[in-house]
Amino acid sequence: MMNHSLKSRCKVAPGTVITGKWHSNKYTVIKELGYGANGIVYLAKFKNSQVALKMSDNGMSITSEVNVLRSFAKVQGSTLGPSLLDVDDWKSSRGQISFYTMEYIQGPDLMTFIQNKGRSWTTVLFLQLLNDLNKLHENGWVFGDLKPENLIVTGPTPKIRCIDVGGTTIQGRAIKEFTEFYDRGYWGLGTRKADPAYDLFAVAMIMINTAYPKRFNKTTGGISQLREAIRRQKDLQTLEKVILKALQGHYTNALQMRTELMSLAMSSQKPSSVNQSMASNSTSTIQPQKVNQTGSQPKTRQNYRKKKKKSRWAETVIITMSLTLLYFLYIFQKLL
Description:
By secondary structure, the protein is an alpha+beta fold. The chain has 3 domains: 4-103, Phosphorylase Kinase, domain 1 (2-Layer Sandwich), CATH 3.30.200; 110-268, Transferase(Phosphotransferase) domain 1 (Transferase(Phosphotransferase), domain 1); 271-279 and 312-336. 45% of the residues lie in helices and 18% in strands. It is built from 11 helices and 10 strands. The chain has helices spanning 4-10, 59-74, 110-117, 122-138, 196-211, 222-231, 234-237, 240-247, 254-268, 272-286, 301-335, and strands at residues 17-19, 26-36, 39-46, 49-56, 84-92, 95-103, 141-142, 151-154, 159-162, 169-170. The strands form 3 sheets. It has a 6-stranded antiparallel sheet. The protein is elongated.
């Protein structure tokens, strides 16, 4: 949490105009969006657009976060974090305060989105998150304080974006910021050294969190408590393999976790009716033909037509269901 003296220095009222010392850009504060260990974030108006403005009297913290956002901008194809817009200082009545402005990302947080739209979106969003995390890791960073409150789902095509990069850490260093529920050190399942597996542990805990919106307290800790929590929720049981491997640090990169999650998602979407039709078809082929008392007789034209008609019907059902599956998989891939 932010210390009281820092918060008081950075606390400003709505309507306050913040003018950059070096670039002379003027920002009118609309409201406070939130605060953390290293500063306060405000919604502000700049000309005819809205921006998020973060201020802190810790210049080193601002420099670090700005460097992270600049690194995000270099990651081709990734839109995980907000775009950096401006970096400056503000000479206030309480002294000079550093600030930067970034893209204002609108939308519900991850948990709210899932509660409103349904759990069917969960896997799609996690696949996209893992893809963006992999790109971040390839550029030498670990997100660190990964949690649902920091993940916003924008539209119209749902996509995860992050609103706080304060915990992002260079790989190999100690994690700067964390939230206990998503921290592997808290659960006794690893260190707080910044590596890709640290973020993947957090992703697994967010998956668990979707089935436990109010979270739960640590009791025995360790993998045994988390495994039991997974097995108590039907929605998590199908993902148990992936979640447990991430919790135990068995993935060395996000793409490995993404590939296995994709495989589970595709297998779980296979229509059961297709399998039933195929099973029924298979059963009918191995049943012995009925033989009347006079012995085996040749098939009549009528029986032949009936059986051929049934075969065509079953084949039509299988083809229709297969095409439906392919269509949904196509839509699934387009959303990624």
